[in-house]
Amino acid sequence: MSLTKPISVVIADTAFIIRKGLRTLVQESADFEYLTEVADAKSLEEALLQHNPNVLIVDHCCDDCFSLKVIQKIKTDFPKTNVLVISHEKSIEEIRKVIGIGIKNYLLKDCDEKEITDAIYCCSKGEKYFCGQIIDVLLEKEISAKEHCETGGITERELEIIKLLVSGKRSKEVADFLCISHYTVNTHKKNIYKKLGINHSYELAQYALKTGLMK
Q: N or C: which end of the chain has fewer CB within 10 A?
């Protein structure tokens, strides 16, 4: 993907090794512009005031640093900055709390490079992106680490198709609505089911409800 203007990125994480890893990933892409990195909430606010980035990649960790309260304040104070949360937290309760404050982009720290870069692209456009592991937790599934890496994230087009299917439209109706062929819709549907590790439409509805797509 080649952009006319690079996506500017600020990184906020308490762990040195995570910051350096994300910095390297960002700097290796011509589509991204690394601005700075911080390790605490006060430095983060100063960095956002100074740089006004397109994307903030922020660790969601302890209550005395990048807590939900801090992240929510950032969303309010810096509405033009899109927030990508990255965390070790895998509990469904905590994931729901993060999504509940309006976070549309959420990764776990053991995601692969493609999921991270895809998430940055989606985040910069204000599109939703949850990594494969987050999706599995929301669907209360347990699969292997290898399968997690193979699932990947759901694209914006796939999200659009999910919304239409869950609303009750058939594949042909979705195709007519989106002005694409029903064969294309069926291909997207197969890819969606494969990524989510599901086989039935009720599981698709469950995913849509738990990720807030149908709110």
A: C
> According to the per-residue pLDDT averaged within each range, which of 21-25, 143-147, 169-173 is highest?
21-25
Cα–Cα distance between 14 and 61 in angstroms, integer? 8
Domain boundaries, the chain: 7-141, 156-210
CB 59 within 8 Å of CB 14: yes
Q: How many CA atoms lie within 13 A of 40 on its CB side?
A: 3
Residue 129 binned pLDDT confidence (cut-offs 50, 70, 90): confident
Structure token digits, residue 119: 């998430």
Provide the token pair at 54.
Answer: 């397109």
**Helix (H), strand (E) counts: the chain:** 11, 6
Where does 156-210 sit in CATH, by number?
Answer: 1.10.10.10
The class that CATH gives domain 7-141 is alpha beta
